[in-house]
Amino acid sequence: MANSKYEYVRLFEQDQTLLPNTWIVVRVDGRGFHKLSNHYEFAKPNDRRALDLMNAAASHVVRSIADVCFAYGVSDEYSFVFERNTQMFERRRDKLVSTVVSTFTAAYVLLWPQHFPSTPPSPPTSVNADAGPAPASHLDASHLPTFDGRAVVYPTTANLRDYLSWRQVDCHINNLYNTTFWTLVLRGGLSQTGAEEHLKGTVSSDKNEMLFSRFGINYNNEPDMYRKGSCVFREYETTAHDDDDKERSNAAAAAPLMSQPARDDNEETRSSDVPEPPLSKTQQEKQRKAKAKAQVVVRHLDIIKDDFWNRRPWILLSGGRPPPNKSVSVIQS
Ligand code: GTP
Ligand code: MG
């Protein structure tokens, strides 16, 4: 077919392709959620409904995009890790980011009514700005949840682990601060400015002590979801004690499934500096089926230590690919 004289405009389209054999992380972040959380009267500092909704939307992304091997979320943000050798959209940045952001946003909006049920029973579900002030639990067009997104590539598994650790440390620091701040305001009767002043120059141990001695709150007993954030991934086999995250101080109890120092850069370079050969069509189909069957779970675990990763080697070490026999040996402790 003859090209039209307009066809040349395609030449202006510039695709950015992300480096091969690197970890791609797409992070979505709620736009203006400070305002939005006030508008919909989220509980402070943590609203379980809002966090469950973030987790449900993230689980939908992991289920819908087979090449996403892990996701970590806190507050209004979620990071989605693509398996190292993903060929999705030929690794085009725009396509990857926009697909993750829109899939996440669509699920967030769709699932909103399940997490913020209305009382009394729902008015029409359509989003309608002219319908007058909506009950707080209903989305209204002037305060629709939207998310921005960005992609970052990490060349080594150690870099990726450090990225995820950075997000989890941030979760801990912010949550300890917010928990203390809002306890001082809501239970201690301080103004917000007063609480801010009160917390100036304090370190973690001061905040822990303040919570305990003045309000009888043991920070370590706060829900894991608030303190550690949320991880979403495919679980092929779990053990009863796997997921309750009684952080084992005894390293021997966490006998690694693969004897590898996960954060050894040299090892990393040796084992994965050459991209894995592409899979045959049959292999791809087999993997797709195994992934589709796998259970996508939400867990609130420590991802800074090696234990989590050692127990689930399929997430990072095998590039997100399911273990060949769909299960891994159960760790005995
Ligand atoms: P931009 O991302 O730059 O658009 O700003 P933002 O307003 O979304 O703020 P940011 O992403 O830095 O931080 C997220 C904000 O969302 C927090 O500061 C809170 O105000 C709000 N937020 C997130 N989760 C909760 C929650 O569970 N409860 C409450 N009350 N607020 C929350
Ligand atoms: Mg935000």
From TrEMBL:
EC number(s) from the headed UniProt entry: 2.7.7.79
Native source organism of the sequence: Cyphellophora europaea (strain CBS 101466)
Name the record gives this protein: tRNA(His) guanylyltransferase
Biased composition (Basic and acidic residues): 239-249, 262-273
Chain residues that bind Mg(2+) 2: D29, D76
Purpose: Adds a GMP to the 5'-end of tRNA(His) after transcription and RNase P cleavage.
Textual note on the cofactor: Binds 2 magnesium ions per subunit.
Cofactor: Mg(2+)
Amino acids binding Mg(2+) 1: D29, G30, D76
Keywords: GTP-binding, Magnesium, Metal-binding, Nucleotide-binding, Nucleotidyltransferase, Transferase, tRNA processing
